[in-house]
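ESCALATION

Customer reports they have been waiting on this structure for their group meeting. Please prioritize. Original submission:
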Amino acid sequence: MKQVSFLFLGIILSSQSARKRSKWRVKILKIDVDGLEVYFPYDYIYPEQILYMSELKKTLDAKGHCLLEMPSGTGKTVSLLSLVIAYMLRFPDHLDKLVYCSRTIPEIEKCVEELRNLFKYYEQCDGKPPSLFAVALSARKNLCINESVSSLRQGSLVDGACQK
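Update from on-call: job pushed to the front of the queue and completed.
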């Protein structure tokens, strides 16, 4: 059985019965995930999110690769961002960049929104946001403001018209 080290730094407000899905309502300032202080910007955290962050940290410590799977709606994005941002701030020489790729624009927008929330949370807790740079990239066909060009459906046509 895996042993996961984590510590809640906050006040536990309530918990559900063990028969239901385990969920704690916690006013969290910081979570200690295997020795790494991680800010988590929500009042609720699932045990699966802590386990996910722990596995990510082990992978980063080992400078390896990992494949983690969690069902939709379980907080993968915020868990990943919370852990990776904390890791980047603590170990800037080990990890200096995160490339987050997604298939759809709404998924990228969700990631950007979670990152904004996390940066605001850091600012609330520390008085300043993390000193990190984030950029969301997309194809020209999604960004072009010229209506005659953006109305073209095919990406290569948009690219060609955009260069004129």
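Sent to customer with the following note: Residues 1-21 have pLDDT under 50 and may be disordered.
Escalation resolved.
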